[in-house]
Structure formats: structure tokens, C-alpha cells
Amino acid sequence: MPSPRVTETRLPALGEVLVSEAQLRARVQELAAEISRDYRGEDLLLVTVLKGGLYFLADLSRALRIPAAIDFMAITSYRADSPSGVARLLKDLDEDISGRHVLLVEDIIDTGLTAAYLLRVLRTRTPASVAICTLLDKTARRIVPTLPIRYRGFEIPDVFVVGYGLDFQQQYRTLPYIAVLRDEPGTALGGR
Ligand code: IMP
Predict the structure, then answer these.
(1) Which residues pair with residue 134 across a beta bridge?
(2) pLDDT given at position 9
């Protein structure tokens, strides 16, 4: 029998709104202003990891006051596919990043393992610089201590959140705000 699709099973319910639409809009504008000031006159490439960083990149890049190129990567997630802790590149960049300033635009940094893997990949290609801009930062769960996080939208507690690109089993990405997912009996947030 085929396994049931998530829409046919019970999704965990949404809890409190952690970051509202208005808060997201305001913070994205502030971050874009900082980035525009810091990278003025430079060859800036914004790199995002699909699919979670999609909305943040779209809003952030449109709020910039300087020219910038965008590009995408896709990787297997540590949790879902790589219990061994080995990530794999599913989609590489189209752009050559050698000599360019790369800003890795992340939806969320949790343990930091994903960002550390991406940084390793990017640094082998001799960019002029690599820094991170993350919308959300769950510092309480950090394993990798030294990440070049230059811009941070919001520091959040150790809760599982969805919306504005972040998903639970591919659901809830399209919410325009960020909400906590309630860990109800019968659902498996631990298997994210
Ligand atoms: P890290 O490697 O532990 O830093 O995890 C990064 C990835 O885990 C993110 O890019 C997300 O895909 C996923 N992730 C971590 N925390 C959450 C969350 O609260 N909601 C949705 N996805 C999350």
C-alpha cells in the first residue's frame, strides 16, 4: 500500500505567531539597508538554499539599494536524509563565484551544520569573501561555534517554526508570517 501523503494525515497545528508579517517586513528593510551600505561598489552575489530561503531572498534582494546577482543551491538536509552527518549537493550554483563577494542568505541556522557544509563548498572556489545573512538564529542549538554570521534577522528560542519559506513536511511554507508548530501527540516533529 502506498504511504499516505501528508495532506491525508494529521498535520501538527499552528501555535503562536513568533514573527508577524509587519515585523518581517520591517526587519528585512533594515537588513537590506545594512547590506546596501556594506557592499556598495562590490560585485555581490546572493546565494540561497532551496527551498526555505526563497521568500527571504526575494524580499531582501528587492529591498537592496545596490546591484546584486542571485543564485541557488539545493542540498540534502542533515536530518531527513543524512543521519551520518554528510550533506550532498543536489543543485549547484550556475554562477562562477571566484573573486566575487558571496552572501549566503539562509532562512534559519539551527545546529549550523548545514551552513558549515555550504561554507566549505563555497570557499574552495576562491570567492573574494563569504558571509552569512540569516533570517532566524536558534543559537541555543548551535553545534558549530564559529560561523561568519554578519546579518541576523531574529534570534529565536529552541522551538520548531514554519512559514515564510520554512516547512514541516513541505507544508506551511507559504504562510506570510512565522509561527510555532505545536508538537502534538501523534505527530513526529523529532523526525523533521
Ligand atoms: P542546521 O544544519 O541544524 O543549522 O539546520 C538548518 C536546516 O534545518 C534549515 O535550513 C532548515 O531546513 C531546518 N530547520 C531547522 N530548524 C527548523 C525549524 O524550526 N523549522 C523548519 N526547518 C528547520
Answers:
(1) 106, 152
(2) 63
Which atom, in ligand 1's list, is nearest to the CA of 112? 4
Residue 133 Cα to ligand 1 midpoint, Å, equals 15
Q: How far apart are CA 57 and CA 45, in angstroms?
A: 11
Q: How many residues does the chain have?
A: 192
Report whether residue 114 contacts ligand 1, using a CB cutoff of 6 Å: yes
Dihedral over alpha carbons 37, 51, 171, 152 (to 10 degrees): -30
Q: What pTM was estimated for this model as a whole?
A: 0.90
Grid cell in block for residue 178: 512565522
Give the three-class secondary structure for 46.
Answer: strand
Side-chain-facing half-sphere of 37: CA atoms under 13 Å: 7
Asked if residues 10 and 78 have their Cβ atoms less than 8 Å apart, the reply is no
Please give the grid coordinates belonging to residue 86: 554528510
d(CA 131, CA 149): 6
48-88 per-position pLDDT tens digit: 999 999 999 999 999 999 999 999 999 986 554 445 556 78
* Ligand 1: centre distance to CA 182 (Å): 16
